[in-house]
Amino acid sequence: MSNIDARTANDAVAELLWRLETQLDEALATGGELLAALPTARRASMLPAIAGQAAVQHFSQTLLAISEARGHVVAGHRVIEKVGKQIGYETNYGDEKPKEDFMPTGADASHLRVAA
Questions:
Q1: For the chain, give me the number of helices (H) and strands (E)?
Q2: What pLDDT does residue 96 have?
Q3: Nearest residue to 25 (alpha-carbon basis) of 90, 79, 94, 85
Q4: Which residues contact 89 (CB under 8 A, 6 or more apart)?
Q5: Cβ neighbours of residue 27 under 8 Å, at least 6 residues apart?
Q6: Which one-letter DSSP state was computed for residue 1?
Q7: Which contacts (CB < 8 Å, 24+ apart) does range 54-61 have?
Q8: Eight-state DSSP code of residue 37
Q9: Calpha distance 25→76 (Å, rounded)
């Protein structure tokens, strides 16, 4: 594979990764909006609390699954980033700040760390 071909392939991977991360963030935001809208719609329709409870539970599980998928993408991003540095390919798509010292807050995310 020539350098031009490698650069094109690497650029495609970087663009697709950026797009996937953006889409997962958008899915989380949209899902959160949907979940928040359900109780409002139920109250406005004067329905009992049981109405739509199964939907709330399903959508909550959906958000959990998207969140877990996002965590896997973040871990994969770190791997790809390290490989990129090893082969002399570094790029950013609006992600210019160093992440090495960044520690996630909230839930335990230690399972997202990648061992070299």
A1: 2, 0
A2: 57
A3: 94
A4: 6, 7, 10
A5: 66
A6: -
A7: 59/31, 59/34, 59/35, 60/35
A8: H
A9: 16
